[in-house]
Design brief:
The chain has one domain. The protein is about 70% helix and about 0% strand. α1 packs antiparallel against α4 and α1 runs parallel beside α5. By secondary structure, it is mostly helical.
Length: about 120
């Protein structure tokens, strides 16, 4: 996962997008979790406590926003604001797609999320 083009704020938004993807089918796989941990490792925090607080809050946001397709679409719209331009949006989409396919299958819920992201990101 190459996130070198993303700033700290964009990496945090990307983390939320990936977590939303993990919760889309309500099935958390170890391969998805490893990729999220990899992204978390690229974020800069002043302490482990701050990292843990951020991570816990991101998981909570994703879990809350995954309750309905409407909530997910609205949240994707909020996250899209962090990725100006097609290049960053395409990179974020590609990273999400890679995460969702990492366990060898894409559920119908994950497919719907990918479609929503593609539409909202205007890709």
């Amino acid at each position: 996962m190459n996130v070198n083009d993303f700033n700290q704020d964009q990496k945090q938004a990307l983390l939320d997008l990936l977590l939303l993807g993990m919760y889309a089918d309500h099935n958390l796989s170890s391969s998805e979790d490893q990729r999220v941990e990899q992204l978390l490792g690229t974020l800069k925090f002043s302490s482990d406590y701050e990292r843990d607080q951020f991570s816990d809050a991101a998981f909570t946001r994703a879990r809350q926003k995954s309750d309905s397709p409407e909530a997910m679409q609205a949240y994707v719209g909020e996250l899209a604001k962090h990725f100006p331009g097609n290049k960053l949006r395409q990179e974020a989409y590609d990273i999400l797609d890679d995460l969702l396919t990492s366990d060898g299958r894409v559920s119908s819920e994950e497919s719907k999320l990918l479609s929503t992201v593609k539409d909202v990101f205007k890709l």
